[in-house]
Amino acid sequence: MSELQVIEYESLGRSNAQFVDELEAAASRVIRSGWYVLGQEVSAFEAEFAQYVGAKHCIGVANGLDALILSIEALDLPKGSDILVASNTYIATIIAIVRARHKPVLVEPELATFNMDPARLSDVMTSNTRAICVTHMFGKPCRMDAIGAFAKEHGLRLIEDCAQSHGAKLGDQMTGTFGDAGCFSFYPTKNLGAIGDAGAVVTNDDGLADRLHHIRNYGSKQKYVNRYAGINSRLDEIQAAMLRVKLRHLDGITVHKRALAEAYFTELPSWVKRPVVRPDEFDVFHIFGIQHEQRDDLRQHLLVNGIKTEVHYPIPPHKQDALKNIISGEYPIADELHKTELSLPISVGTTFGEVRRVCRAIQAFCVRTNR
Ligand SMILES: Cc1ncc(COP(=O)(O)O)c(C=O)c1O
Question: Which UniProt keywords apply (predicted)?
């Protein structure tokens, strides 16, 4: 019998194989240029990415966490403001609020979509609330129509964590352009992934863009003239060049991932709880998260069958030691999602044959356990 071929959750070498020649040529171009920090590649990527998402400005930074921290800082909110944030987001969104010296106030998500529930915003709003920071979880756009209307009604600033939502749209509008700032991570596994750490902020606000251009570079836009006490969080030339290559392929990457999602929708047993599809939401499926009561057993069963999966995320933010003196209260929906979520392989390198094998293995588990 032939040995069981392992299905990786993500293999970056395999995912990037189709881009290697272009990436190597771009890296070589940068090395030979002799200009490695804040040069033509960064400017060109910023212009190309701003155009792609439909924003006036893009400011490249070192990573997605810095994109969030610097955007929140640049808003210049009163110190210690309450900022509303989803209770099930990746902890980086919450850490950014803390590091910008504000108070994260958790809003429970919709159980079916993993996204911030607009109906719960008024329950957590206080006189100290100044902003909302949404995360478009797993590549699915949040209900920015309802959240935007709430922010407007209450005079709140709006930041979007788009680390998982490159190219995702609500209606015709791309995530990142609904609020004051859209914050992107280009961590290698993201739909638009660099060959290392990288991030960016997009905005239509000239003043905010100007502050961010300063803050990412020691508070300086002019050599040795410092307007703010900024930091060093520059996107470097090599990563910008890598991202220019990958950006040209982003729509193709999205087409492949959406087709894999379609295959899961068709082939998963009908009673498996899968992502919700709504006609006006263009989901880019950074992650394909199903839910199952016996998640850990199912995960183990898949592993035994040579299928690697992930959990996003095993511990909810309010149960992390890092936040124990900052967040209190009960978050049962976050608890439930963290207990039941299982992410199936859906990377650029994943094949339709692999999706079929995953679905067959899930079917076998459910027959064995009578669901
Ligand atoms: C939702 C979310 N926010 C923020 C980040 C942080 O991005 P980075 O790792 O580039 O700092 C991530 C990255 O995993 C993320 O998934």
Answer: Pyridoxal phosphate
CA distance 342 to 345: 10
Contact yes or no for 247/21 (Cβ under 8 A): no
Q: How far apart are CA 28 and CA 88, in angstroms?
A: 41
Handedness of CA 175, 73, 62, 95 (dihedral sign): negative
Domains of the chain, first to last: 13-244 (3.40.640.10), 250-368 (3.90.1150.10)
Query: Which secondary structure element, helix H or strand E, spans residue 338, and what is its range?
Result: helix 332-340
Counting atoms of ligand 1 from 1, which one is nearest the CA of 63? 10
182 lines ligand 1 (CB under 6 A): no
38 to 147, 241, 286: CA distances (angstroms): 35, 12, 29
DSSP three-state, residue 255 = helix
Tokens of 269: 């047993």
Any ligand 1 atom below 6 A from CB of 113? no
Choose which residue among 72, 85, 90, 201 to substitute to test ligand 1 binding: the one with the highest number of ligand atoms within 8 A of its C-beta: 90
Q: With CA atoms as reference, report the closest residue to 194 among 343, 23, 17.
A: 23
Amino acid identity, position 323: L
What is the mean pLDDT for each group of 10 consecutive residues in the chain (371 residues)? 84 97 98 98 98 98 98 97 98 98 98 97 97 98 98 98 98 98 98 98 98 98 95 98 98 98 96 95 98 97 98 97 96 98 97 98 85 63
Tokens at 93, concatenated: 């969104």
| Model-wide pTM > 0.90 | yes
